[in-house]
Every structure is written in structure tokens, then in C-alpha cells.
Amino acid sequence: MENFDVLIIGSGMGGLVCADILGKEGFKVCVVEKNKQIGGSLQTYARDKVIFDSGVHYLGGLAKGQNLYQIFKYLGIMDKLKLQLQDVDAFDKILIEGDDNEYNMAQGYENFIDKLLVHFPDEEKALRTYCDKMKEICSKFPLYNLRSSSNMNEKSDVLEFDTKAYIDSITTNEKLRVVLAANNALYAGQPDKTPLYVHALILNSYIESSWKCIDGGSQIAKLLAHSIKENGGKIIRNCEVKKIAEEDGLAGYVELQDGSRMYAKYFISNMHPVKTFEITDTPLIKNAYRNRLKSLENSVSAFTINVVFKKESFKYFKHNYYCVTEQDVWTAANHTEENWPLGYAIFCAPSSRSEEYAEGLTILAYMHYSEVEVWKDTFNTTTNEHDRGETYNEFKKRKAEVLLDAVERKFPGLRDCIKTYYTATPLSYRDYIGNDDGSLYGIVKDYKHTLKTFISPRTKLPNLFLTGQNLNLHGILGASMSAIVTCCALLGNDDIVAKIRNA
Fold first, then answer.
1. pLDDT band for position 103 (50/70/90)?
2. Among candidates 131, 136, 113, which has minimal Cα distance to 170?
3. Deepest in the core among 113, 252, 318, 486, taking most CB within 10 A?
4. 183 CB contacts (<8 Å, ≥6 apart)?
5. What is the DSSP letter of 296?
6. How far apart are CA 472 and CA 333, in angstroms?
7. Per-residue DSSP letters for 123-160?
């Protein structure tokens, strides 16, 4: 039986980055993934030869010297990625129902302010206050700036701000309030809950620089996998871990679906912490802790349409759209059957085959898992949708047509360009990303209970660690940061941070 230094459960961004870092540090690592395709939210799929991303629609912080750039440079993948810089004057465009303006979110803080002053000439003070606050908050997070620090107090004074309340406090201009909040689908924002630091860390990243992966984000996973193997690591697909077994106060082995066992000195789980502890057989992890984790709210899921366009029918654009209604900008997830969707996002994927025309388009709107729960006992384990039955297909078709009608109102003629479209529901996210409810961004952060939603990479089993989007922050940057935190915990020092900073 092959023994490993570190066995990592799940090949999402957190798991792959952990494997790559620890492989570079001389550990013999093995990543086990239950799906056929590695990468978690990095997975792509092709429909009619058009590549669609399942999760990574754009990336921030990838200009030279910025945080994600340094991480990717250290990992050895930066120079190999096929990237496209988004429109410098608009990485996101905000559309408001009943308003014909397009509000541009620009790259670079001065440019960001200038582009919004076009529509809000009297709001320079508010915009400067907002931008200064974003930068101030980001400066308080050491790891975000690739600094070493275990001083929790450094960030404690910026943790307990509410995003909506803060935005409302800097301006009385209702329209500007809506515009600054409109892309909160990036973090499933909620009023009187989402901490301002979540908004700041994510938005700052895109304001610094905003990018897309040409031909899909799965290239990140493939490059990391190649690097892991070059360092002597292994990746095993179609391999589901069913149990983490404790022996003498440590994680001893994992049991796989076929009953076989794999042994290692250390174990890292990239699964949701609740799922990790559900399969961890030990009295050392107390029920009170398990129940506390179970009580934490998961973020909402989504319904997605992936549109394949007729050849050269729809012009490509280098930005994203967020369409909102003024009154529902913070509450789009509180939709009913009758008023859905209360907002949506649109992402155009760059293809190496054409710069002028778009091959495909992804439209995303919130959807709750409860809306598809009637089909919860059906599972997709292949890249082709298993037939969940005619009622499910009818449900998807009905929802798709309603969402396309909403989009057509803002983009007249869109329907005429559609060759075919494909849909995904919270069940698709559940089956491919591996959580129980299709949650987009894992555990919801709450400014009133910040420490409750910070999850340590350490567990009561000293050689079992957690990683991934549920620890600190979601997204490619967030999961990469979480992986660094996990590796520092396992290594017992944070030397790795300096290596990344100086890469």
C-alpha cells in the first residue's frame, strides 16, 4: 500500500494549491477527487464545441506584483495562463431596470471614481470616501497583502461593519447606493449581514485589475495538476472518500467508496467543513462543534443558462453586466415564483477562435435549493445530465424562458442570436462542486458574528486540516489564500508567505 505524507480530499482550488505548495516543500502528496474532472469551480464543459465555465467568470489581482499574480508566479503557472485583460474603463457594467444608463465600474481607483462621476458629478466626496475605505480595509488583512502576521487585532477594527449600512452612510443618492451595491452577487450580499470586509476584499481585487481566462478557467487546474505531478505528487480521480478514521487521537486513514484504505501522515479536506466532519469518525470532534457548524447558513445557489450563439451573430464584450432593480438590489435572493428573477449577471467568455464575436454567454440568477429539492434523490455523476425526469426538464425550460425574457428586455434581439442553450440548477452545482445544497460561496459571513464564521484550518485531530472557500473567503483568490493559511498551519510557520511575496 502506497503511503503519502499528505492526502488531500477534493481537487478544488484550495486542495490543488495546498498540494502544489506542499509538493514544492518536499512532501509526497496525493489528491483524491470524486469527480471525473478536477478543479471544483474551475471545471469547464463544452456544449456544441463552445467552452463554458462552471464558476470562474473573471479574476482580479493578476497584474504584475498584485496578490494573485504573486501566488500564481510562485506556483509557476502565471506565465502559462491564457488571459485577457477586461475593459479598463468597465470591468463591470451596472444596469438598473427602468433606467437606460450603463454605469461603469472601472479598473484603477482614480479611473473608478472618474467613470462614476460622469453620472454622479456631485458625489466625488462620497466616491473618494468609499475608495479610501476599500483600501484601508484591505490594508488591515496581512495575508491579502502577502505579509506574515498572526495578530488578529490588526483586522479586528474593520470586521464589524455592515456593507449596506456603510454604503448608505456615505451618500444619500439612492442611485449611487444601488450602483455601488449592484454587483453583490459576487458574494451573495445580504442587508444587515454581509461584512464590509467581504465586499472590500473582493471589489478591490477587480478594481486593481480584472481578467478572464481565454478558453476557460480549467487551465488553472490543469497547470496546477501538472506542477503537482512534476513535484512527485499524485492525483486520483473518480475516487470518493467515504470515511476519515481516527486512530489514537490522529486521523489514521481514509476509507474509499470501494472499501479500500489510504494512509498518510497528514490529511487536508477541501470539502465543506460540515461534510468533512460528517464522515470523520471520532469522539474528539464534539457534537456541540459539529452542530454549531451545521447551524451556519450557506449562501444561496443559482440557476444558469449557457447560451451558444449562431456564428458571428453577437458581438463580444470585455466586461460583465449586473442587472438589478432599485428596490431589490440587496434582496434579489428573496424572490418568489411570481417575481423571479429580481436580478441577474451576464458573463461573456473569451475564445481563442474569435475576438470580435462571442461564441457563448452565461446568464446567472439566484435560485434556492428548495426550488429543486423535489429531485434531490437524483444525481449527476457524469458530464452529461442524467435524466432527472420530464418534470425537471419542464421546470428548467420554464425558468430559462422567464430569465431569457428578462434579459431580452435589456438586450433586444438577443434571442435571435441564440442557436441553443443549456441550463444548470442548484442540483448541478451540488453534484459537480460537492456540497449539499449547491451553495455558490459556502458559509455566509455575518458582521455581527465575525468570529463564528471564521473557521480555523486546524481540527481536534492534530493531523487533519481544512481548506477551501469556507475558511476565509471564496473565489480563486479567497481559496488560494485559504490554502496558504492551511499550509502555514501544517508546516508550523509562515515562511511560505515570504516565498510567495518574493517570487
1. very high
2. 131
3. 486
4. 92, 94, 105, 203, 320, 322, 345
5. S
6. 22
7. -HHHHHHHHHHHHHHHHT-TGGGT-----THHHHTTSS
The C-alpha cell of 121 is what?
A: 458629478
Instruction: Note the pLDDT tens digit of each residue in 310-357.
Output: 999 999 999 999 999 999 999 999 999 999 999 999 999 899 999 999
The angle formed by the CA atoms of residues 489, 444 and 465, to the nearest 5 degrees, is 20
Lowest mean pLDDT among 196-200, 330-334, 375-379, 432-436: 432-436
Cα dist from 352 to 73, 314, 392, whole Å:
23, 16, 35
> Whole-angstrom Cα distance, residue 269 to residue 10?
7
> C-alpha grid cell for residue 112?
473608478
Rounded to 10 deg, the angle between the 124-139 and 163-170 helix axes is 140
Residue listed under C-alpha cell 411570481: 338
Least confident of 215-224, 376-385, 425-434, 481-490: 376-385
Preceding omega of 273 cis (within 30 degrees of 0)? no
Q: Is the pLDDT of residue 383 over 60?
A: no
Tell me the backbone φ, ψ of residue 222, rounded to 5 degrees.
-65, -40
| Cβ atoms of residues 131 and 146 within 8 Å | no
Distance CA 230, CA 45 (A): 26
The rounded distance, in Å, linking the Cα atoms of 232 and 244 is 24
Position 169: which residue type? S
Task: Give the pLDDT of residue 387.
Answer: 67
Count of residues in the chain: 503
Return the C-alpha cell found at 65: 506584483
Q: Supply the DSSP symbol for 373.
A: G
Q: Which residue has the cell 476509507?
A: 255
pLDDT in tens, 387-441: 688 899 999 999 999 999 999 999 999 999 999 999 999 998 888 877 788 899 9
For the domain 3-43+58-67+215-296+445-501, what is the CATH code? 3.50.50.60
Three-state secondary structure along 75-125? HCCHHHCCEEECCCCCCEEEEECCEEEEEEECCCHHHHHHHHHCCCCCCHH
> Distance between alpha carbon 292 and the CA centroid of its chain, in Å?
23
Residue 363 backbone phi and psi in degrees, to 5: -115, 130
Angstrom distance (rounded) from CA 128 to CA 122:
12
d(CA 259, CA 245): 12
Q: How is residue 423 written as a grid cell?
A: 441550463
Per-residue pLDDT tens over the stretch 201-253: 999 999 999 999 999 999 999 999 999 999 999 999 999 999 999 999 999 99
How would DSSP label each residue in 402-461? Answer: HHHHHHHHHSTTHHHHEEEEEEE-HHHHHHHH--SS--SSSBPP-GGGTGGG---SB-SS
For residue 427, report the phi and psi dihedrals to the nearest 5 degrees. -70, -35
CA distance 320 to 182: 12
Instruction: Name the amino acid, one letter, at 31.
Output: V
User: Could you state, in order of their start, the residue ranges of all structural domains in the chain?
Assistant: 3-43+58-67+215-296+445-501, 83-90+107-210, 300-440
